[in-house]
Structure formats: structure tokens, C-alpha cells
Amino acid sequence: MRRYGKHTDEDDIRTRPNRKGNRPRTHIRPKHEDAAEGMVLTVDRGRLTVLVDDRIVMAMKARELGRKAAIVGDRVALVGDLSGTKDTLARIVRIEERTSVLRRTADDDDPYERVVVANADQLAIVTALADPEPRPRLIDRCLVAAYDGGLEPLLVMTKSDLAPPDKLLELYGDLDIPYVVTSREELENGDAADRVREELDGRITAFVGHSGVGKTTLVNALVPEERRRLTGHVNAVTGRGRHTTTSALALPLLGEGGWVIDTPGVRSFGLAHIDPSRVIHAFPDLEPGTEGCPRACSHDEPDCALDQWVAEGHADPARLYSLRRLLSTRERTEGD
């Protein structure tokens, strides 16, 4: 049976009523050209703390963003109540393109990639020289993640009053990584914070390190007005530290124009997401030598063109050794 006659117009067409009484659904999304810009400072169970101009605004992600999540360091666009007053909530409608990302996986067999920090331009790898002992494989993994994500590494060695830094400096000397050595006394009198702050001026720096190395204590010294209630302790039996930072937090370096992003202490740093072709970019003296490499070369195989490149005197053999040590860290456990 024909529901409509041969000649119909729009008034004859029956439409399904919208029971919610709101506007019809559409795939056309608003551009929000008048949205305010802000920087994500921390994320807690779906609520985001965002700095908008000089105000702290609470916000949540708009449904239209789908599964895309904003993380600490993200530059975002917001609409809604931007007053920052109590019990108000803005809406994040856009996440701007990221200039860098610090990523990791839970382990090397985990396909799920976690983005820890966005838009940082420096990664401060904090390690104690003793109590707990340094973990070079974990440092190597952090270096690979920094090179892969577009961050410049900075090595911060703490507790030099308990052990000298010479052995660790020798291990990473060929990588030309800037470093700062601190002691407990220097942390207490402020000298260590002043030296580290010189490396952070005008930059966004993410701090990473396993528990007990003094990372949060150092961050507290750098930004005393945002001091944490707990600084943690090292278990005398296991040598492991207690986590004192449960989520990443961005803190401003007043007067310096820079930012410190404190991240939770890590037990491991998985590299399942790492592409060796991106790590080579951190070795400009070796990168031209990869032009003769076979397709998908791991840079640690018999046909790798880097061996000939170094043999011809184009680069220092120690640099090639350092590159291969970093790339092979996925095959080794972090305690080795």
C-alpha cells in the first residue's frame, strides 16, 4: 500500500518527533572559533585543571572529541564558564596539535601506548648515585623515549655525597647529554635547585625517575610554593621507594618563564611503541650513513650501512656503540 500520493510536497512527509525537545542531531560540529586557549596542568578522573590566562579553570572533555584524551601539557580550547570560581566547569572542545610527546608502555609486550606528557621540550632523567643504586638500563630507556618523542634529555644525578658520579658520566659521555650533579646538602641549602633551574629556564621540562631517587624533593625545591605534603622514603630492606606523585602535574617556574612537569615514579619503562628509525634522528653524525641501509634496518644487523660509514671515518665508533646500546635496550631487562 502506498503511504503517500503520487505528488507530495514537504508538508506531506511525516517526521519522527524529537522526544528530548532539543535540536536535531547533525554530523556538522561547531568550530568554536571564539574558544579560549589554555594549558592542561593536571588530570584527575576525567576532570582537568587548566590554566587560562592567569586563572585556574576546572574542565571536562567535550563528548564531540570522542576517545581523544587531553593530557598534562596539552594546549586546549575551552568554552563555557571560564571564571574559575568554585563549582564551575568549562568544556574542552579542541586539543591543539602537539609538538612533542613522552610515551611509554607498561612493558615491552604491552601494545597499549600511554602518553605521559605533551609539548615538553626537555626530559630531566633523575637518578640517584646510591640509595637506591643507579639503573642504567632504565636511563637508557628514558633516553630512547626522549629521542623518539622529540625531547632533549637532561641527566640529573642526586645523592653525590653517597657515591661519585664518575662511572655514570663515563657511560653516557659519548652521548653529549647535559647533566647536573647534586647532593643532599645542596638540596637543603638551595644550591642544587639553582644549578638545575639554569637548565630549565624558558623551557617545559618533564621530570622522570624511579621512586626514591629524590625527584619530588628536587621539584619541591624548584617550586617551593607548590610543595607536596609527602616526599617519600626508601625502604631499607628492598631499596625501593614509595610513590609520592600519583599523576603528572605541571608547575610554573616563577620568574624563569619555564615549567616543571612532575610525573609519577616509575618501576619500568616499556618501549613497545618505539620505532628505531626515529631514534636515529638524535644522532646527526650517524644519520647520513643510514642511506645505504636495507629496508626496515634495525641498525644492529650484519647488513647495516653504519658499520662501513664509521669504518670510513665519518663518525666516532663510540657513538655507534651508544646508539646500538640504546636500541637494544628493548631486548634487555631494566635490572641488567
Task: Give a topology summary.
Elements: E1 36-44, E2 47-52, E3 55-61, E4 75-80, E5 90-95, E6 101-104, E7 114-118, E8 122-128, H1 136-149, E9 152-158, H2 166-172, E10 179-181, H3 184-189, H4 191-200, E11 204-208, H5 215-222, E12 249-253, E13 258-262, H6 276-279, H7 306-311, H8 317-327
Helix pairs in contact: 4-5
Summarize the entry for a quick read.
By secondary structure, the chain is α/β, with parallel strands linked by helices.
- Broad structural category: alpha/beta
Strand order of the largest sheet: 10-9-8-11-13-12
Task: State the assembly state of the protein chains.
Answer: single chain
Mean pLDDT: 82
| Helix fraction bin | 10-25%
* DSSP strand count: 13
Ranges where pLDDT stays below 50 over 5 or more residues in a row are: 226-244
The N- and C-terminal alpha carbons lie at a distance of 79 Å
Q: Count every helix, treating DSSP H or I runs of 4 or more residues as helices.
A: 8
Element-by-element helix/strand order: EEEEEEEEHEHEHHEHEEHHH
Largest sheet, strands/sense/barrel:
6 strands, mixed
- Portion of residues in beta strands equals 15-25%
**Shape by Cα distribution:** globular
Taking all Cα atoms into account, the compactness measure Rg is 25 Å
